[in-house]
């Protein structure tokens, strides 16, 4: 099921209502049955990854409960099995494999407690290539589009998700760092920084449901479907921005399932909005037919295409980059040895005392050599918001 998790969906009967007069608070049980959530799809031309978790109460805190030590395998309509192995806990994967696209497939799950679940047999779909991922400037921002078509006229139902990656920098460039020492006499405690913590990258998966159908059109063509909009200014456009788009061919049943999920998660907010619908997937409990199971297991291939957008491709003179995160950053000056003021005696190694008591990191030594310019970790270490390890696909 891609990057969009369904584990927090509210089951049928729990309504999220809002009012322009006064808020309406729903009384929900303190404890809620922990239903199985099946998140993933059968990849007919690659590695299948299935995540098993359990639902939790709306007020529950902490991490999501995973379903470990289950037996999971893919089964086709001829009875052939393709096992999945667990790593990490609650995540089950197959090796890269090519499944017969003419067969139907389903997923079998048996939990460590012996409860059995099975998805419906579903036809395998072959996803056509992405024609293009492009962008246009409009509405004071940058709109990313995706286009595709199926010359065999067999797809009709398309879904996309994506991952965004962008390069960014810290507010200040740090050339030295504080290294605590208890040597007597004190050894140098400000040393050259050997690791680049100024240049970083951040990656985020998509969180909205993007799909389209051509079922009512004369041709199986999707042209310039709006995928992601970046309003100016945006930190994503500081230097180089990349979006990796993945495309999935769906059956009508899967498309309908994702439409219900989209409406339940995106359209509810006021009393005039559509009410949530019961989310019925295609996974069923063999141990208890009345037990709800969340998830829709489909079988299809995946295609992807990556787009890069460089800062110099955007209009000059237009404010396209916002440094909102760094706006609160400031520099302070810490004297190496605090001089005497009035009747106070001088304090040797004053900076060492300050560095040991505060989370302050030297950024640069002033030309005089008697002061340190410092800032907070968030302002000089870009790793607090990303990684300084360059992605393998980055140019």
Describe this entry's structure for a reader.
By secondary structure, this protein is mainly beta. Among the domains are: 1-125 and 250-301, no CATH class; 173-195 and 324-384, no CATH class. Helices cover 7% and strands 36% of the residues. The strands form six sheets. Strands 1, 3, 4, 5, 6, 8, 9, 10, 20 and 21 form a ten-stranded mixed β-sheet that branches. Strands 13, 16, 17, 19 and 22 form a five-stranded antiparallel β-sheet that branches. A hairpin with a 4-residue loop joins β4 and β5. The longest helix is centred in the middle third of the chain and has 15 residues, at 252-266. The protein is elongated. Mean pLDDT is 86; it is low at 1-31.
What is the approximate shape?
elongated
Termini separation: 30 Å
Which structural class should the secondary elements be placed in?
mainly beta
Helical run tally: 3
Which radius of gyration do the C-alpha atoms yield? 27 Å
Largest sheet: 10 strands, mixed
Secondary structure topology:
Layout: E1 36-43, E2 45-46, E3 49-54, E4 71-76, E5 81-86, E6 91-93, E7 97-98, E8 104-110, E9 116-119, E10 122-123, E11 130-138, E12 141-149, E13 157-169, E14 176-178, E15 190-192, E16 199-205, E17 210-213, E18 221-231, E19 240-249, H1 252-266, E20 283-285, E21 299-300, E22 302-310, E23 332-335, H2 350-357, E24 361-365, E25 371-375, H3 377-380
Parallel strand pairs: 1-21
Antiparallel strand pairs: 1-3, 2-7, 3-6, 4-5, 4-8, 5-6, 8-9, 8-10, 9-20, 11-12, 12-18, 13-16, 13-17, 13-19, 14-15, 19-22, 23-25, 24-25
């Amino acid at each position: 099921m891609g990057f969009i998790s369904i584990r927090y969906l509210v089951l049928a009967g729990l309504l999220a209502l809002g009012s322009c007069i006064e808020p309406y608070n729903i009384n929900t049980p303190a404890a809620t049955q922990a239903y199985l959530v099946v998140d993933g799809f059968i990849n007919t031309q690659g590695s299948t990854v299935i995540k098993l978790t359990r639902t939790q109460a709306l007020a529950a805190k902490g991490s999501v409960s995973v379903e470990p030590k289950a037996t999971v395998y893919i089964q086709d309509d001829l009875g052939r099995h393709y096992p999945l192995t667990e790593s990490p806990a609650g995540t089950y994967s197959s090796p890269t494999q090519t499944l017969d696209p003419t067969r139907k497939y389903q997923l079998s799950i048996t939990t460590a407690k012996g409860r059995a679940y099975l998805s419906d047999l579903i036809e395998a779909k072959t996803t056509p290539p992405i024609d293009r991922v492009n962008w246009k400037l409009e509405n004071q921002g940058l709109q990313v589009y995706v286009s595709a078509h199926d010359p065999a006229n067999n797809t009709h139902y398309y879904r996309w998700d994506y991952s965004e990656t962008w390069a960014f920098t810290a507010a200040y460039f740090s050339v030295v760092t504080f290294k605590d020492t208890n040597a007597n006499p004190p050894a140098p405690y400000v040393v050259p920084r050997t690791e680049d913590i100024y240049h970083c990258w951040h990656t985020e998966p998509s969180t909205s449901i993007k799909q389209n159908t051509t079922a009512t059109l004369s041709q199986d063509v999707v042209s310039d479907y709006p995928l992601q909009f970046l309003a100016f200014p945006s930190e994503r456009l500081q230097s180089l921005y990349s979006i990796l788009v993945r495309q999935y061919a769906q059956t009508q049943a899967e498309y309908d399932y994702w439409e219900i999920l989209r409406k339940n998660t995106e359209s509810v907010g006021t009393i005039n909005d559509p009410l949530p619908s019961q989310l019925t997937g295609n996974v069923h409990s063999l141990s208890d037919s009345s037990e709800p199971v969340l998830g829709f297991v489909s079988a299809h291939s995946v295609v992807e295409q990556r787009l890069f957008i460089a800062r110099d491709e955007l209009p000059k003179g237009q404010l396209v980059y916002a440094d909102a995160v760094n706006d609160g950053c400031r520099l302070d000056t810490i004297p190496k040895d605090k001089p005497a003021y009035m009747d106070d005696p001088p304090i040797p190694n004053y900076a060492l005392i300050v560095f040991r008591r505060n989370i302050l990191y030297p950024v640069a030594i002033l030309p005089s050599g008697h002061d340190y310019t410092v800032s907070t970790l968030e302002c000089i270490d870009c790793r607090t918001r990303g990684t300084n390890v360059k992605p393998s696909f980055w140019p």
